[in-house]
Amino acid sequence: MSKTVLCRLPNHVGDCMMTLPALQLLADSGFTPSLIGKRFAEDLMAGMGWRYDPIEGQVLKDLGRVKEIARSTGDSPRGVLFPNSFGSALLFKLGGIRSAGYPTDGRGFLLDARLAEPGVTHEVNRFFTVAREAIIAWGGTPARDKPTPQLGLKLLARHRAGARNILRDNHITEDQKFVLLAPVARGLHKGQKKSWDHFDSLAKYIEELGYLPLALPSPHEVEEVRVSCPSARILEPTTLGTYAALCERASLVIANDSGISHVAAGIGARQITLIGVTDPTRTGPWNPAAVTLGSEGHWPTEEEVKNTVHRILTTEA
């Protein structure tokens, strides 16, 4: 039986990042992850060295693609479902993949291995438990019982070259220190907006400290960033892998509890994540170098954020 495991990734940037310890567990336990997910994550995951097949959200095309992937894997291919959705389980079932996952969204009958949910915990633990329990269900031995303390995102040379090129093309010299700002968090959480209100004032303060405030919004966020943080220097959008390389070079990354927070955590950047409506015990950055300010139902004050930025930047190695 093939040791390849087809892994259906979640549909959001942050969730994809939080599956990394689970995927590494599969690899360290003798399996070969083969990733299936939305196209945006292909570049972000490229440095991990695993096969990546994008799906587009078009049912018939996606099903044909999944069947092709399953056939290329060998007899009775195995899969792990990181999303909780019925649709992800149905896609794998119709594609001929014997999948393991949580029996959420009424999909238990579609699963080959129905795994017990771990209860309320951080999403990294939740994803890790899927992989660990799947390995046990297949008769294997997990390489470890707990996720690693860091996400462990790996970058390619082209990602780092892309980051250097962006800085060069925007006349930002090697000795110019910069802070990456991600002021936008799209969508609502329980009907509330997920972004802090004072990024523009923060950008001005960062400049007073002698650092260049930079923002690289996604193509869909450019206008929102211009409105919410006009004092930042706004650069053209780039790929997520190159963005991660910029996080690696930055003196500090400041973001809401959003995908960018988890991209920064992926490479172990010095970061501040601003919380106001989400639960950091479930979705906070999985990064020992991260500082989280605020709590569910309570945004941090402008003074609190600025004081923390000052402390971090003035103790920069």
UniProtKB/TrEMBL annotation:
Pfam families: Glyco_transf_9. GO terms for cellular component: cytosol. Coiled coil: none annotated. InterPro entries: Glyco_trans_9 (IPR002201), LPS_LOS_Heptosyltrfase (IPR051199). The keyword Glycosyltransferase applies. The keyword rRNA processing does not apply. Keywords: Glycosyltransferase, Transferase. GO terms for biological process: lipopolysaccharide core region biosynthetic process. SUPFAM superfamilies: UDP-Glycosyltransferase/glycogen phosphorylase. GO terms for molecular function: ADP-heptose-lipopolysaccharide heptosyltransferase activity. PANTHER family: LIPOPOLYSACCHARIDE 1,2-N-ACETYLGLUCOSAMINETRANSFERASE-RELATED, TETRAACYLDISACCHARIDE 4'-KINASE-RELATED. This is Heptosyltransferase II. The gene is waaF.
